[in-house]
Amino acid sequence: MIADLTATVLSLQVGLPQQMPSLQASDHSGSRQEWTTGFLKKSTAESIWLGALNLAGDGQADLANHGGLDKAVNVYPHEHYSYWSQTPGLTTLPMGGFGENFTTQGLVEQDVCIGDVFQLGEATVQISQPRQPCWKLARYWRIKDLALRVQETGRTGWYFRVLREGHVQAGKQLVLRKRPYPRWTVSAANLVMHHQVQDLQAAQDLADCEALSLRWREKLRKRALTGAPENTDPRLNGPEN
């Protein structure tokens, strides 16, 4: 039953963009230039205002690809931490280790759907799309193929848009209130976008999901029309990787 579907926000993270120094030539990511990222976020136990665009005190460096109404909150299930802890370099992941705002426990990509509406404290939020990891995740952890591995495993997490602003806090529960699109789990959406690239009908069907983010709908409609999937190399590999 919908009323039984809940998750706990184990940890809440916010942080403003920071400039990162260039990495050494020995770094496996291959990058040697300075870069700016909003990846570095700190956990807080305080009650934080969640507005339409983001949490108070939070920000994104690349506003062309991150943030905005459809990507106000980045969510990552803590259930995946044990899997990634088997990766050299990720054995001691802190909360927020994937740059997420909410580290949750109780629901994963197979359990939640595009369009799901949750209550969290004073705020009401809705799942808008799976997270599409980018090269900055790999560069931060100095694991060249990390973004690709996150995408390929489906352990992506997802984004919330904000339907009602309000204060939120770690330790509170996300309670599912509505599920308008039960067909489209986050896992199913990931499969269509990243694995079933030849299934043009599935692309069109997912694009017709009105709760899906505008950007994903545009990409899928283009694929359904032209048959050409998105070129993910720049997003996953970055300018120098």
Q: How much helicity do the residues have? A: 10-25%
Radius of gyration: 17 Å
CATH class: Mainly Beta
- Low-pLDDT runs of 5+ residues are 24-31
| Estimated structural class | alpha+beta
Number of domains: 1
Give the CA-CA distance, first to last residue: 45 Å
In the sheet with the most strands, the strands line up as 1-7-6-10-9-8-12
CATH architecture: Beta Barrel
Query: The CATH topology, please?
Result: M1 Pyruvate Kinase, Domain 3
Task: Please give the count of helices.
Answer: 7
Please describe what this structure looks like.
- It is a single chain.
- This protein has 241 residues and is of the alpha+beta class.
- The chain has one domain (2-181): PK beta-barrel domain-like (M1 Pyruvate Kinase, Domain 3, Beta Barrel).
- The chain has helices at residues 81-84, 135-141, 146-153, 186-194, 200-207, 214-226, 233-237, and strands at 6-14, 18-20, 35-37, 42-43, 48-50, 73-77, 102-105, 117-120, 123-130, 158-164, 166-168, 173-178.
- A 7-stranded mixed beta barrel has the order 1-7-6-10-9-8-12. It has a two-stranded antiparallel sheet with strand order 2-3. Strands 5-11 form a two-stranded antiparallel sheet.
- A hairpin with a 2-residue loop joins β8 (117-120) and β9.
- The protein starts with 5 loop residues before the first strand and ends with a helix.
- Residues 24-31 have low confidence and may be disordered.
